[in-house]
Amino acid sequence: MRKAILDVDTGIDDALGIMLAIRSGELDVLGITTVNGNVSLETATKNTCKILDLIHADPSISVYPGASHPLLRNPVFEHRVHGQDGLGGALADMHPSGRADLSGFGPDFIIEQARLYPGEVTLIATGPLTNVALALAKRPSLVHELKEIVIMGGAVQTYGNITPVAEYNMYVDPEAAQLVLQAGFPRLTLIGLDVTRRALLTSEHIDTLGESEIANYVRQSTSDYMQRYFERNGVQACAMHDPLAVATAIWPELVETTRYYVDVETRSELCDGQTVCDFQNRLQRKPNVEVGLKVDAEEFISRFIYVLRGTN
Fold first, then answer.
1. What gap in Å lies between CA 247 and CA 224, rounded to an integer?
2. 205-224 burial, b for 16+ CB within 10 Å, e for fewer?
3. Which of 132, 208, 234, 274 qualifies as a cystine partner to 265, CB 3.0-4.6 A?
4. How far is it, in rounded angstroms, from Cα 221 to Cα 74?
5. pLDDT at 79
């Protein structure tokens, strides 16, 4: 099993990504770090603990709170999409167990594990990249100590989901995203809206999960999310942004990537957070990112459903 760390801002799709990562049996999840993003750091941490309890994850998997705000900017929450609690109202009555290690700090945990297992750890980041940027600032050699980093974020050939050009995670902390993309990771994969918008979970898919605690949770948590997606995109479905990033780490054959130079805009009132991909090499800079451009969405959804059904 490949060693992995999840870095999350647990809203609805982060939760589905956590479930996929742990229940797939393909990853040795060393721990989960949380970051301010869809919801506050405190709520993201609580939600992560709830999801781990829901799926009866191994008690050894702890949660490490990280950055409570972006590097330079004010937080931007997504309560309209994820609800005030981040999980669409699901698990509201659950009191999570004490998985959160409040004595630790997310970026330090990433550093420690990469030092402990050099060249073995895959970091899957599905929230704003603040924790990763802080870890890099403290230990620049992290670039060569991690095996790879898979990021959910960006939109290179399509429109944004928070501004006309920016994807949410990049918009919330573009300075952190720029630092991470420019750090020189030998293996950095960007799973953006270009592929995640094609990976749609429908009510029909959820019905195939049958009746179980997990199926009921997925049905309830995604209900309002699907309605918001329909209002904006005209499709009654839930875009599987974060689960697809997790799936890419597990099954890289599902997503076709091409290596390009990518940067993030940080100094434009109109375009902050835009991921700029140099498709024609006009900047004459060395490619730094494996950009996801094609996805076998049907196979991805099939595997996702299979993994979650396996928990019944």
1. 24
2. bbeebeeeebbebbeebbbb
3. 274
4. 27
5. 80
Tens digits of residue pLDDT in 182-237? 999 999 999 999 999 999 999 999 999 999 999 999 999 998 889 888 888 888 89
Secondary structure of 279-309 in the HEC alphabet? CCCCCCCCCCEEEEEEECHHHHHHHHHHHHH
**Helix 297-309 to helix 241-250 angle, to the nearest 10 degrees?**
90
Q: Look-up: residue for tokens 């959804």?
A: 301
Say what the pLDDT of residue 195 is.
98
Q: What are phi and psi of 148, to 5 degrees?
A: -165, 165
Residue type, 44: A
Q: Characterize the bridge pairing of strands 275-277 and 262-264.
A: antiparallel
Q: Kindly report the CA angle at 165 between 86 and 278, in degrees rounded to 5?
A: 120
Single pTM value for the model: 0.97
What does the alpha-carbon distance between residue 18 and residue 8 come to, in Å, rounded to a whole number?
A: 9
Element holding 112 (H helix, E strand): helix 106-116
Residue 284 contacts residue 312 (beta carbons within 8 Å):
no
Both tokens assigned to 20: 């996929």
The average pLDDT across 120-145 equals 98
CB 204 within 8 A of CB 210: no
Q: Please say if 241 is a catalytic residue.
A: yes
pLDDT tens-digit map of 4-59: 999 999 999 999 999 999 999 999 999 999 999 999 999 999 999 999 999 999 99
> Which of 79, 82, 205, 241 is an active site residue?
241
